[in-house]
Design brief:
The complex is a heterodimer of chains A (171) and B (258).
Chain A lengths: L5 H24 L18 H22 L8 H8 L17 H9 L23 H4 L19 H13 L1
Chain B lengths: L9 H32 L10 E6 L9 H9 L13 H7 L4 E7 L6 E7 L7 H5 L5 E3 L5 E3 L9 H5 L6 E2 L18 E2 L5 H5 L6 H8 L5 E5 L6 H8 L15 E4 L2
Parallel strand pairs in B: 1-9
Antiparallel strand pairs in B: 1-8, 2-3, 4-5, 6-7
Classes of the chains: A mainly alpha (171), B alpha+beta (258).
Chain lengths: 171, 258
Amino acid sequence: MPRSTGIKRFAGMLAAGTFMLFSAGALSDSVVTPGSKASGMDACVAPTAEMRRYHMEYLKHDRDKTVHEGIRGLKNSLAGCVDCHAAKDGNSGYASINADGQFCDKCHNYMAVTLACFQCHRKTPADPGASSAGTAKENQGHAFGLLLDQGESATLTEKERAQFQALVREE
Amino acid sequence: MSNKDDRPDMKRREFIGKTVLAAGAASVVPGVLLTVAKAGGENPGVSSDVRYGLLIDTNKCADDCTACVDACNRENGIDVMERPKGQSDDDWNGQRPQWIRKVRLKDMQTGEITNLPMMCQHCEFPPCVDVCPTGASFKRADGIAMVDRHTCIGCRYCMMACPYKARSFIHQNVARQLVNAPRGKGCVESCNLCVHRIDAGDMTTACQEACAKDGHQAIVFGDLKDPDSKLAKLLKKQSSRQIRADLELNTGVRYTNV
């Protein structure tokens, strides 16, 4: 048997360690779809574990406020989810957020929970050059740079980060 | 009791008084503070201090113009709906949503033609709300009659009840929507006075904007309860009428020169 030198053992361990590190990284990153605005951001509007458990309830509460009381631009909005989590489709547009393998579908498919939101709601972020005059205005109220103009950086500014963290703490 | 006279024990009385006061303060004050804090920080939402409505001058409405209808279709994503494969012309044209349409009246004796842009009249006492079995058809505090599609079961009672034929039903799956105008199979919908614009603080509707842009100025949008609004001033100055005023629904949309 050829002698197993220290250097070989060390190289083997290094390779295995690197592999494990990468695979662990891939697993923990798999929640957010690559190529979406969310992949360039620190956190969602609440910690990930909380969003996983309660996103449907947050959406439900805020939708009633919006539809019946006209309160828009709340922290939790479906349009907000789509704006951050929809991934670019490789062409100039976005992939539908509920399409196979996309952000919503991944978990909902795994958990066998039917997702009915997008039978009525838009599945991609609003077109920047949409035909209606009101479309530009609808973006008002989404705070903290979650909605970006074209060419704008996807990371938060210092001020936005501070605001954002204050908001998360407040909740 | 050590007191021989009939004077009450003032110490005891004082103690009880203070205790009640302290307990009262402890239970009431946080509530008051909470309310005050909330009133300052949160968006209060729509208020019944306003009532939105329209005034339409039929004399100014041009016979061959469809600017308001086209603008409404664009604003509310009706124009991005795609025709299902194999659907006949009749079905497609008859079943597409229509939030505003032009009704053309002709006086058979004189041949005079009047155009009425017709949409949800945003009644004060809306029959669509009366008949809705789920509460999906509702009136916002600011007078806008709307459908909450989350609770709409698509029974279409409201379509039957509406005297103005204002509501539409979505018969097929919809692939594309605008963010402001969610739309899907199985729900009823109608004009909501461009509610997303109002909520954003914009005081125009798509139809009014388009009509003014084309130079007709036939449609005026505003607050019926604000005596200083253009709408209220115009209503005060000239005679206007509600369509089917006999039903006593007190519509928010009024017409002149009908």
